[in-house]
Design goal:
It is a single chain. The chain has about 250 residues and is mainly alpha-helical. It has 3 domains: about 90 residues, Winged helix-like DNA-binding domain superfamily/Winged helix DNA-binding domain (Arc Repressor Mutant, subunit A, Orthogonal Bundle); about 60 residues; about 70 residues, no CATH class. The protein has 11 helices and 2 strands; from the N terminus they run H-H-H-E-E-H-H-H-H-H-H-H-H. It is elongated, with a radius of gyration of 25 Å.
């Protein structure tokens, strides 16, 4: 469980993690967090960063290593992680990953009050959200693929054991074969087509059939959806199409 007096701001955890890599001054910390897009998961404000660092210094998790000034610029204090700070970093990470915590998200609040909206509008809004999230997934997969190309030693600059220093980051969330990052888009379109076939097409959509590469999925999945759910029908089509690609390649060879 969390230790008494531990900061509740995740930014403090980010600071400890940065100093685990190497000593830094606050401006470098903020720049590194932005470069790594950490502001998407941790609220980053420059003023809060100094407050967090001061709190960590008072706790003994971080100490000032050196102070320098370049020209007329303000002084820059470089901070480093203490042994107790390293212990706190790892204990904090273990607690976060091991113990589920109740988090009051805005989306969960919206779901709990969903009945105030008409059902058709609620469904459409959730589909719009799914389409938006598919773009986020694509962006994250790109960032993870880029990260997987870096060597661990080059990223952390720690005295790592030789067998580990030249290893690349393990692809925990990266697949070698590109995932169907547009699958959510296709699935949302299948719901629209199924609704249209059932005579309940959302007024925000207009059917406009044309010849294009994904026409087969638009024809076959709605037909399968008469027997199974849309999600199952889409999975069956995906399985069949990938099987045909593989068997066709083998037959061609």
């Amino acid at each position: 469980m969390p230790k008494a007096g531990r900061p509740s701001n995740p930014l403090a955890l980010a600071v400890l993690a940065l100093l685990f890599e190497r000593p830094m001054h606050p401006y470098e910390m903020a720049a590194t967090l932005k470069e790594r897009h950490k502001e998407e998961s941790i609220k980053l404000r420059y003023g809060s960063l100094y407050t967090v660092i001061d709190a960590l210094v008072k706790r003994g998790d971080v100490v000032a290593r050196a102070t320098s000034r370049a020209g007329n610029r303000p002084e820059r204090t470089v901070y480093e992680l203490t042994p107790s700070g390293l212990d706190e970093l790892r204990d904090w990470m273990r607690d976060l990953l091991r113990h589920p915590a109740k988090e009051f998200t805005q989306f969960e609040a919206g779901l709990s009050l969903l009945p105030v909206l008409p059902p058709e509008e609620a469904v459409q809004l959730l589909r719009d959200r799914a389409l938006h999230l598919s773009g986020k997934v694509w962006q994250m997969e790109g960032q993870l693929a880029e990260l997987a190309q870096h060597e661990i030693g080059a990223m952390t600059q720690q005295n790592l054991p030789e067998p580990l220093a030249r290893r690349k980051f393990p692809p925990l969330f990266v697949v070698e074969i590109p995932a169907m990052i547009d699958y959510v888009n296709h699935l949302a379109r299948m719901h629209v087509l199924v609704d249209a076939a059932a005579g309940r097409l959302n007024p925000a959509y207009v059917m406009d059939w044309r010849l294009y590469p994904n026409l087969a999925v638009d024809i076959i999945v709605p037909l399968l959806a008469r027997l199974v759910s849309v999600e199952t029908a889409a999975r069956l089509f995906l399985l069949a199409s990938q099987t045909l690609v593989v068997t066709g390649a083998i037959a061609w060879r």
